[in-house]
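Hello again, I could really use a second opinion on something today. I've been puzzling over a protein and I'd love to understand its fold better. I'm sending you its amino acid sequence along with the backbone structure tokens. It would help a lot if you went through both lines with me. I've dropped the whole record in just underneath, so have a look.
***
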Amino acid sequence: MARRPLPSILSSRPSLARGRDIARTAADGATDVLHPVITIARGMRRQAAWAGGWWGRTPKDRRAPALLLAAAAVVIVVMMPYGPILGAVALMASAAWMGRDRSAPAAAGAQADAETARLQSMYEALVPYLSAAGDPAPLYAHDGAWQKAFSSYEFQDGRLTHLHLRYPAYFTDGEADSRARVEQLLHAKAGRGREYRFDWNEEENHLTFVALPPLATDIAAQRFVTSPGETVLGFTDADSVQRTVPVTAGAETRDVPPVVWRGGARSTEPHLLALGQPGTGTTSLLRSIALQALVHGDIVVVDGGGAGEYAFLSGRPGVLAVEDGLLGASATLEWAAHETERRLIAVNRARQSGNPVADDVRRPLWILVDRPTALTQLAAAEGRPDPQLLLDVPLRHGRTANVSVAVVDQLDATETLAPVVIAQTRARVVLGPLAPEHVAAVLGAPPRTTPAAHVPAGRGYARLGTGPVLRLQVPATPDPFDEDAPESERVAVLAQAPGTPEPEPILGAGLSGESGTEPDLATAPAQEQESPEPVVLRKDAVVRSVADLELG
């Protein structure tokens, strides 16, 4: 015989379920209605706990003055108009602020736990490097707390971007090897693939560890806002320099921090040396310098590689010569040496007579040399003098004569560079993926950042004199005749080139009668003896005439 269920009216289960639902709904409604009261009560409880803790920490000799001061404050509030009401409102407001719900969402809690685990792991990894066996109260110890060593930190997308830590005073922070071990460890624990900068504060035993954003690579050649004599080598981090320049990148205009190289008579680093492997952007750097120099001065370009990377400059206003052969390059550098001597004589005469310096002497002259070591090898094969020796006078006396020299070459050819080039070039640039010790060998100081994972063309480091080592990204300045370069960048380079190319001058014009014209009397040596004024030579004629004499 089958059992039949009891009638629902005789069962108490539905009524119990309905009762529980009603009680839960009533509790939720009461919680919503009484939420301000609950918050204020929780805040007053926290205020009472804070006051009790403060009273326990206060020394006994200071408790009586504190009570007297609190009683005086209460009396003042009571005697003020509407004082008790305002005091009660302020007390309830502070209690509501302290009693607010501070619980984070579950996702945020999980993320905080992951960040805490990452910091604890980094702290334990630093224990063998920043602790000693005889320390009675070690700052770094196994199973220790990272909160006492790490004062501040920041995470972005789950990755550590900033860390400020303290280390014991006995740590040998003055030794490069000790620093390198700690930096390598932090680099590995924070995650490879990014550049990090380490700022050591030896006076206060602090280390600041920052993840640097990548430098902008979308800036092409353009007219930069600079003063005469200033050249923008590239762009760096915002906190490394104290100025910015507006640049146009695509369709937007923004301010970026530049690395500015100053030349001229008031410069302490009037000459530049840039080194790098093929394809790292040294030739683009020299083209960028040439385009900026043509705004206020004249340039002489010597292309030792002979690849025609500067052919677009030939014949343009302000371009005195563009040579890529051994004979033409030697003649051009020889003229540059004589021009530097002429300017020195003119400056000396003007200072002795109290007259202003002539305009042609005040106008800057830039000697741009690409791969001089290739010319040195050709000269040695043909038994000719080293063309680099002709740079001795411009390098040593160019600052007074307003002559600046920029030399770029390959990194593996540094042994062939003339000693005078290495000694007189105090502004240095190194481009390409290099180890820190290689950067230190070129710039004289190691970089403060870890090597980059991806190095685009034009990326490297720069150091002006004895200044800090700065990250550098050279603006994109390709050869406008290079079909593989982006069209927008080639158009930008041609837009910065001054004027249109002028026709090539007649060889030897102004110095001999071979061209069928009378010699230019303004360049005759006899007139220089008759007039004390500085003599203005026809530079292009002198360069090509000397080349003709050598060819003959």
In short: The first helix runs from residue 13 to 33.
